[in-house]
Amino acid sequence: MIHIVTPVFNRKKFTKKYLEALGKQTVKDFKVIIVDDGSTDGTSEMIESEFPDVVLLREEGGLWWAEATNIGVRHAIEHRATYVMTLNDDTLPESDYIEKMIYWSKKEPEALLGALAVDVNTGKAIFGGQIRNWKNGKDINILDSLNEEEMHGLHKVNFFPGRGLLIPIKVFKEVGLYDSKHFPQTVSDLDFTFRSSNVGFEIYCNYDSKIKIYPDESATIKLRNNKSFKKYIEHLFGRRGGGNLKFFTIFVFKNAPKRYLIPFLINGLARRILGYWIK
C-alpha cells in the first residue's frame, strides 16, 4: 500500500483543500500520514474533526521538512508500506493522480516516480522534471523538448523534488532517509534523489499523474519577489533560501562526480551570489 507523507505547519486552509483533493481520488488504496510540526492555527484540530481516517502525528515544532518527513517515513515503514509518497499540502492532486501512479509503478516497480506539476491558476504545465549536466552545470528542462503529443507516460530524469514523488520502500532501505542534519528544509529532497540515482535507481516524471501547485507559495519565489537586501541574505543563508551557500556546497561534495566537482562548485556559487539580482 502507498503511504502518503505530508509535513504541515500553520497552513490550515491549504491543508484542508489538499486533504479534500485526496478524498476525491479514483482509488482508495492508500493511507495519508500528516506530520504536524507544531502548528498553532488549529491544523491538527481540523484534521481530527474533519478527516478522521488520516494518521496524524503531532510534533512540537522545529523539525522542518526533512526530519518531519523522516518521521512519517519511519511510521510508514513500521506499518508495512510498500511505497511512500512525499506530497506537499500546497498541492491539489488531480482525481486520477494516484491511480496513474499505481499504473506506472507496476511497470517500473523499483523506480522513483515524480508528478507533472501544473499551475493551479492557468492549468499550464510548469514542471516536468530535469536532467542535470554536471559537466556544464546546467539543468535541462524536459518540458522544453516535448510537444503536446509527447506529454504523457514516463520521461527519465536524474533527480526530482519531493513534491509528489512515489518512492519504493526498497530505496529507503538502500540509501537511507532524508539528510535532515545537513539539509533541514531545502535541498534534502534533491539530495535524496541524487543519492538514489547514483546507486542505480531510475527516476521518471510521470506525465499522466498531475498535481496543481501554487507557484507563488514557493519559499524561493517569495524571496525573489520584491527583492531586497534582507531577502538576499535570507536567500544565501536562510534555511528556506534556494541559494543557501552552505547547503549547496555540502550537496556538491556529496553528489557531484569528482572530475566536475570544483568547476561545478565555483559556477554554482557564482550563480547563487549574482543570480538573485539578475533573474
Descriptive notes:
- The protein is an alpha/beta fold.
- The protein has two domains: 213 residues, Spore Coat Polysaccharide Biosynthesis Protein SpsA, Chain A, CATH 3.90.550; 57 residues, no CATH class.
- Helix content is 38%, strand content 23%.
- The chain contains ten helices and twelve strands.
- The N and C termini lie far apart (42 Å).
**Gyration radius, in Å:** 18 Å
**Reading side by side through the largest sheet, how are the strands ordered?**
3-2-1-4-11
Described by strand count, sense and barrel closure, the largest sheet is: 5 strands, mixed
Q: Under the CATH scheme, which architecture of the largest domain would be assigned?
A: Alpha-Beta Complex
Strand content: 15-25%
Which consecutive residue ranges, at least 5 long each, have pLDDT under 50?
A: none
Backbone structural class = alpha/beta
Ends distance: 42 Å
In one word, what is the shape?
Answer: globular
Task: Give the SSE string.
Answer: EHEHEHEEHEEEEEEHHEHHHH
Mean pLDDT: 93
What attributes characterize this protein structure?
about 280 residues, alpha/beta, Spore Coat Polysaccharide Biosynthesis Protein SpsA, Chain A, 5-stranded mixed sheet, 10 helices, 12 strands
